[in-house]
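Quick one:
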Amino acid sequence: MNNRLRALAVIAATSLLGACGLFGKDDEELKPAELVDFEPTVKIKRVWDARLGGESEFMLVALQPAGDGNRIYAASQDGKVSAFDPESGKQIWRIDLDLELSAGPGVGEGRLVVLGKDGTAIVLDAASGEEQWRVDIAAESLASPLIRGETVVVQTIDNRLQALSLFDGRARWSLQQTAPALSVRGSATPVLVGTTVISGFDNGRLVAAELDTGTVVWESLISPPSGRSDLDRLADIDGAIAVVGQDVYVSGYQGRTAALASESGQVLWYRDISSLTGIAASWNSIYTVREDGEIVALTRRNGAEEWRNASLLRREPTLAVPFNTTIVAGDFEGYLHFFSNIDGEAVARVRHSNAAITSDPVVIANQLYVQSDNGTLAAYTVVDDRPRRSAPDIAEDGS
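Output:
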């Protein structure tokens, strides 16, 4: 999960420490890139929108919509969880949990999991929203929970990965990595490959563990910490981890973007590209966003660079995700930017809301779902305006 404000916090800290070197320079270089007019070549339609609840601006939360094929689920920072019909946007149910939420929802097996800022995990019935149980997980989480079979997997900001029983919240296993002296606020959402859970940690390590037992299968150091100061040695893996087939794609802050074999952790290739947003993948390409806001497209097979786009520099873009024939990212002013997946050129831009978009856009089926910090959820689709060919006339005698 990406949160652009995590990057902002690190950049601000770096700026303060290096203030002497910044004074006297042209302030223009520190300003967000201005939006440039262009002729749209792709038409984007807002299908529906809804109000989720209270604002989460500057709360550094990890709330983003999720779907199970039948419904779209979303949660607000002030504890309201809702289910919607994906086609019409009609609200099916809504519940107020009466606590601040920091992550979720995660969906699976007919259940919905959200995580409280106070370190509480709550499981709801996906069909009705009825609460099933809630347990203390001992720390805040900023990563969406993962549900598979009888297990809920949760990663917390204390560098701990734990598994709970889906039926009653009972602890099944837990593993923890050493925490560095300083880290960027956030956590990578765990992913599942077969029966193996893969997750990134603040020490720059990617760890694979068996879903049933928590037994560590392999570890790989993606972003080796370097430098003299704690700030220089930041190497967090906080962004989205992508999986295509048996290959895993990951990116670390002040480190590398890499492809690994999911069964062994062997590094297949890497590039010296640092990112807090992580990786999004299509069948042929992967996409990441550097900490300065530049979007980079790489060939999935070997990491060769396909294109770069610097039009969102310092606009704190979300992860750029594939959608139809485009790549889309949100920014700090509530805009959605659509780029061609072929050459990275801008093809469309829409204003989602007046509030920042810090949660990554989510593609489910043929629709794009976006949640902004003021609690606005909306669904978008690409409109195909190409003229339809009429069927040729066929003579009755078949000639």
